Amino acid sequence: MADASLPILHHYPSSPFSEKVRLAFGLKGLAWQSVDIPVMMPKPDLTPLTGGYRRTPVLQIGADIYCDTQLILRELDRRWPERPLVKPEHKGLAWMVSMWADRQFFQASVPVIFGAIGYNIPDAFKRDREQLMGRPFDVEQMKQAAPLLRDQWRSQAAWVEEQLAATGRDFLAGKEPGLVDLAAHMNFWFLRGAYRPAYDQLVAPFARAEAWAERVDAIGHGPVTQIEAAAAVDVARQSMPEARSGVDPREPQGLRAGDFVTVTADDYGRDPVYGKLVASDPYQISLQRSADDLGDVVVHFPRVGYTARRG
Ligand SMILES: N[C@@H](CCC(=O)N[C@@H](CS)C(=O)NCC(=O)O)C(=O)O
């Protein structure tokens, strides 16, 4: 039996973006429920909830579905403001830094890893990632690019080292861990777990960064209960979406409440999600969707990194 008052994370253990959220639960000391999802399509229990969004992870709270870690982490702080991931003096700044870790830094991690381990990966996984990325999963090309991307990876790890050295603090934004640590750490965690020789080579000169990554690991994942996907679907069916405060009257494209809107990621995994606009602000956009066997759900996306189009 699932508890409808607790957050449900749809994820899989090897997902680096999910690791950010698991650590966020640990940092906040928040009890959560875990649903294991497949590492590739199809995801028959997930996509009916999201309306087509397939990326990992997805957060569910009752009949509200939050896509993308940018919004998932923001929502955790909004609903559970104790032990905030973002300190009041870093609002804005922390999200800017986090976007660097999600995009620039992550895009160096991927070829460094798959250029080394790609030959051992099952064909089905490669085909799935080709569909996700909209381009060939070319291991040879990643292998060629890996040395150049190792340069890039090292240089970004050097920023972490430099920041820790400059302040002498345990964490990137001060004495306590927060969003910026979780975001940057995802790349250390991913490389270390997926291809340790490159991690050892690239992180060895950065003793502070290495110790910092271990401190972030030590935050842990907080109290978690494993539940079945079917139990999460039941929670969505039996819950009402949270009442939202309305659509921003200053929507730049003039979107209005009740418009039918399609939201799509602007990088990869561009599966469109279609629904009725029920809430928006500069940080998020929320679409209501109905399905016969699910009732109403509201699917929420961040604005940065997603396009929203009428129709
Ligand atoms: N911007 C997204 C990126 C998420 C992402 O790239 N997740 C990877 C796994 S860590 C993914 O979706 N891989 C394909 C899949 O799981 O189907 C976020 O912050 O949540």
The counted number of beta strands is: 10
What is the straight-line distance between the termini? 38 Å
Please give the order of strands in the largest beta sheet.
5-2-1-3-4-9-8-7-6-10
Uncertain runs: none
Any ligands, ions or cofactors bound here, and which?
Answer: glutathione
Question: What overall form do the CA principal axes indicate?
Answer: globular
Radius of gyration: 19 Å
Number of domains: 2
Largest sheet: 10 strands, mixed
- Would you list the SSEs in sequence order as H and E? EHEHEEHHHHHHHEHEEEEE
Average pLDDT: 97
Classify the beta-strand content into a percent band: 15-25%
Structural class: alpha/beta
CATH domain fold name of the largest domain? Glutaredoxin
The total of helices stands at 10
What is the CATH class name of the largest domain?
Alpha Beta
Task: Report what the structure shows.
- With 311 residues, the protein is α/β, with parallel strands linked by helices.
- The protein has two domains: 8-83 and 224-310, Glutaredoxin; 89-217, Glutathione S-transferase Yfyf (Class Pi), Chain A, domain 2 (Up-down Bundle), CATH 1.20.1050.
- The chain is 44% helix and 18% strand.
- The chain has ten helices and ten strands.
- The chain has helices at residues 16-28, 47-50, 69-79, 93-117, 123-133, 139-167, 179-194, 196-203, 207-217, 229-238, and strands at 8-11, 32-36, 58-61, 64-67, 224-226, 260-265, 273-280, 284-291, 295-302, 306-310.
- A ten-stranded mixed beta sheet has the order 5-2-1-3-4-9-8-7-6-10, with helices on both faces.
- The longest helix has 29 residues, at 139-167.
- It is globular, with a radius of gyration of 19 Å.
- The two termini are 38 Å apart.
